[in-house]
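Comment thread on ticket #2218

A.B. wrote:
> Attaching the input chain for the structure job we discussed in standup.
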Amino acid sequence: MSKAIREHYKHYSEDFRLRMLSEYYDSGMSIYAFAKKHGIDRGTFLRWTKTHESEKVSLPLQSESGEDDMANRGKDSYKDENAQLKKRIKELEKALEFSRLETLARDMMIDKAEDYYDISIRKKSGAK
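C.D. wrote:
> Ran it. Output below, let me know if you need it in another format.
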């Protein structure tokens, strides 16, 4: 490999890789969106996920790192966390209801298309 090509490659520490993977798993973003956001080559980041997945490297969970802090927390922090969790539950319930409405609208659209075109669009349950 020529010197110019070697200088083009970025080298990331193992600590940085694990930190990025942990953040990626917590984010819920796609691999490509996460890599673009952090300026990491998509192929490189994809390789990291596959490598660490195949090696069964366990990434530390956030709750594991704060076990000692649990005993020292005050009522206010529990109230704040409880309020945040309730807010998150409401957001998820709203998203679930929206998803149900989307499914209902999709089913209605398929029904109308089946009636209009006089064809069966849905897969039959007994089909092979």
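A.B. wrote:
> Thanks. Noting for the ticket: The chain has a mean pLDDT of 80.
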